[in-house]
């Protein structure tokens, strides 16, 4: 179950969404559906998931020497959790004026 959630996405945009809207952004397995993502996050992190938005960005071409290929495809999930709850592994101190 842990390998279904690949890693959290920490950028300036996701950092702002975390503090304003209680939204966490993760890259997840492409085959997961929204109900499956909800079950995984509620079991792994013990939080109440309110909504999930997902998108699959277009694949990017890469080139190594003469060989061409594509980067692996991934699904990005933006998860909104209940106000007052947090994912304890991603709790950050608020130091930025939003």
TrEMBL record:
The terms under GO molecular function for this entry are: structural constituent of ribosome
InterPro entries listed in its UniProt record: Nucleotide-bd_a/b_plait_sf, Ribosomal_uL23-like, Ribosomal_uL23/eL15/eS24_sf
- What Pfam families does the record point to? Ribosomal_L23
Q: Which GO terms describe its biological process?
A: translation
Q: Which GO terms describe its cellular component?
A: ribonucleoprotein complex; ribosome
Entry keywords, A to Z: Plastid, Ribonucleoprotein, Ribosomal protein
Similarity remark: Belongs to the universal ribosomal protein uL23 family.
**Name by which UniProt lists this protein:** Large ribosomal subunit protein uL23c
Look up and give the organism this protein is from: Volvulina compacta
Could you tell me the gene encoding this protein? rpl23
């Amino acid at each position: 179950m842990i390998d279904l959630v690949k890693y959290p996405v920490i950028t300036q945009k996701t950092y702002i969404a975390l503090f304003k809207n209680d939204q966490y952004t993760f890259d997840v397995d492409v085959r997961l559906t929204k109900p499956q993502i909800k079950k995984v996050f509620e079991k792994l992190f013990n939080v109440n998931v309110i909504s999930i938005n997902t998108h699959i960005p277009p694949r990017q071409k890469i080139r190594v020497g003469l060989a061409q290929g594509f980067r692996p495809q991934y699904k990005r999930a933006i998860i909104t959790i209940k106000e007052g709850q947090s994912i304890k592994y991603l709790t950050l101190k608020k130091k930025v004026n939003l």
